[in-house]
Write a structure and sequence with these properties.
Elements: H1 15-41, H2 47-65, H3 68-72, H4 74-94, H5 102-112, H6 115-136, H7 144-229, H8 236-260, H9 264-267, H10 271-281, E1 286-292, H11 300-321, E2 325-332, E3 336-343, H12 362-371, E4 375-380, E5 386-393
Parallel strand pairs: 1-2
Antiparallel strand pairs: 2-3, 3-5, 4-5
Length: 399
């Protein structure tokens, strides 16, 4: 049988459902053939009427099976069941064998109608079957089985359909759970892949900056010092100048590589722009961004460290502080750059602060700052909000 009619979006028939539906078709047509065959072989007085009633019932059933609207629309299904009921009632009038058709009708009614209406239709069908049997039976042939048979058949049909629907719902829940698990696994794999790519990009940018770029910068400074120490008419000055220009060009190229490996938040603008976007997108409290001092271009490791610290601090505000407002301030001074993240939340005792998890804790922020020779401080107390500050000394080329 197909999916229950309550399903919002019927799914394709499974092999088991298809076999059950074929069995139902075979049962009904077989019972009709048996009723018509018995009427003919027994030379019943109204054999022609019996055959005609069986043919009409078979035609109405086949028409409903071949009409898609019957399976999509409860109204069309109810109309089809009414037609089947009328044809079956006609068969009951002319033949007691029409009683057998009640059993497949039970399943059709429970399948096409809502449960309460389906159970009511089964009860009416059972009563009609009993009445049809009593109308054709001799008074001496009436036994309790004439009443119990249709009623027990209806009860079995109701129990069977209810059990099938329970199994179907459980199967659907498991299917949805499996789909969610597959989707979650794919999302986790993508997140891990993206995190690995970002980590590798940051590592490469840091390595290029700390080795190649710094080495070229040192070479340029040494060449400049050599150039100044030689007399103006020294033949080596021309070669030193060309070497310094080559070092300058390669240093610029190395810095372009570092910029190309910058995290996505820094790809489309400056650190200040990335911090402003971070404040705008932050959920929960109102977050304001302030820029103080004259902005300047920082080395990529500095920008990455400050952005990650701001993200971590703001994540802590959203998760733990229960703050109404927060403010991120980026301050450029002559020899340093400072990032402050202040909120008006519940605060905490820094000496008892949790270490965090996933790299977003205070120790991770402190490690980022100290790696670049900076200073990381946390000022907070219960009920007084929290202020996180990191100060990084500017490198010579940025100061």
């Amino acid at each position: 049988m197909a999916a229950p009619p309550e399903s919002p979006a019927p799914r394709p028939l499974t092999p088991v459902s298809r076999i059950l539906r074929l069995c139902l078709h075979a049962l009904l047509f077989g019972l009709l053939a048996l009723a018509a065959g018995r009427a003919v072989t027994d030379s019943a007085p109204r054999a022609g009427w019996v055959v005609a009633a069986c043919a009409v019932l078979a035609a109405v059933y086949a028409a409903g099976v071949l009409t898609p609207a019957v399976h999509r629309s409860p109204r069309a299904g109810a109309v089809w069941l009414a037609g089947l009921g009328a044809a079956w009632a006609a068969l009951l009038v002319v033949s007691p064998d029409g009683l057998w058709i009640a059993f497949p009708l039970y399943f059709l009614e429970l399948h096409l109608l809502r449960l309460r209406w389906g159970v009511a239709a089964v009860a009416v069908t059972a009563c009609a079957a009993i009445g049809g049997f009593l109308a054709h039976a001799q008074s001496s042939a009436v036994s309790p089985g004439a009443f119990l048979g249709p009623l027990l058949g209806g009860a079995v049909a109701v129990a069977t359909v209810l059990g099938y629907q329970a199994l179907y719902r459980e199967s659907e829940r498991r299917r949805e759970l499996i789909e969610e698990l597959i989707a979650t696994r794919a999302e986790l794999a993508a997140a891990e892949r993206d995190a690995g790519i970002l980590a590798e990009r940051e590592r490469l940018a840091r390595e290029i900056h700390d080795t190649l770029a710094q080495g070229l910068s040192s070479i340029q400074l040494l060449l400049r010092a050599a150039e100044r120490s030689l007399p103006q008419d020294a033949p080596a000055l021309e070669h030193i100048g060309r070497a310094r220009e080559a070092a300058q060009e390669n240093l610029a190229e190395a810095r372009r590589f570092v910029r190309a490996l910058t995290p996505p938040d820094l790809e489309h603008g400056s650190l200040a722009a990335a911090l402003e976007r971070l404040c705008t997108a932050a959920p929960g409290p109102r977050v304001r961004f302030c820029l103080s001092g004259a902005p300047r271009v920082l080395p990529t490791p500095y920008e990455v460290a400050l952005l990650r610290i701001a993200q971590s601090a703001l994540a802590n505000v959203v998760r733990h502080a229960r703050a109404g407002r927060a403010e991120i301030t980026l301050t450029f001074m002559d020899a340093s750059v400072t990032l402050d993240v202040v909120d008006d939340g519940t605060g905490f005792d820094p000496s008892c602060a949790p270490t965090g998890e996933g790299g977003f804790g205070l120790p991770a922020m402190r490690s980022r700052a100290e790696t670049l020779g900076g200073l990381f401080t946390v000022e907070s107390s219960p009920g007084q909000g929290t202020a996180v500050a990191v100060t990084l000394p500017l490198p010579l080329e940025a100061s």
